[in-house]
Amino acid sequence: METRYAPIPARLMRAGTVVRQPVVEATARVQPGDPAISVMTDLRQVAAVLVDPDVDIEAALRIMIRRNVRSLFVVDVENEIVGLITATDLMGEKPMQHVVRYGGRRGDIRVRDLMTPRARLEVLPLADVEHARVGHVLATLKLAGRQHAIVVEEDRQGHEVVRGVFSTTQLEKQIGEAVPVDAPARTFAEIEAALSR
After folding, report:
1. pLDDT, tens digit (0-9, with 9 covering 90-100), for 93-143
2. Taking a C-beta distance cutoff of 8 angstroms, is the pair 80, 159 a contact?
3. Pairing between strand 148-154 and 123-125?
4. Euclidean distance between CA atoms 97 and 95, whole angstroms
5. What is the CATH architecture assignment of 36-185?
6. What's this model's pTM, rounded to 2 decimal places?
7. Where are the domains of the chain?
8. FRET label pair with 86: which of 1, 14, 120, 177, CA 20 to 30 Å apart?
């Protein structure tokens, strides 16, 4: 005997309807000796925020604000990572330096102009992260002078995939104190200044 199903009653959407966002759970406090994996944003649980390289930087900044993130993976039409853009890239000196160097206006600048290209992105293997502690992550971010660290693993086909991200923002929430990350010294004067601290 065939079961008959009645259609679900539909109605028009009301004005002001918003998309429900995931409930952000309170973050557990951690100590430097706790497992590093406990402070990693696991991209199996939380969707990464992506942006096209040809998007203007003001639109990229709006995406960050709307999604409450400080970095975006820059991907091509094949969804392959071509770079990373951070809030520091968008709100720091880079836009003005680009305008001075190439002319134009801030509104003409695209994500591709300021992003860190894939070839310069350093990554941490998940196998190493699984054996590391929060203190190791802090030391890694401080040494690199970065606010983010990308964690990768291989999928079943042997392709490298981004599995997670460490961020100073998340670490600060979970440790309960500021995580100072200075940009690494790149000139002899910067190295000398760093050593004199």
Report:
1. 999 999 999 999 999 999 999 999 999 999 999 999 999 999 999 999 988
2. no
3. parallel
4. 5
5. Roll (3.10)
6. 0.79
7. 36-185
8. 177
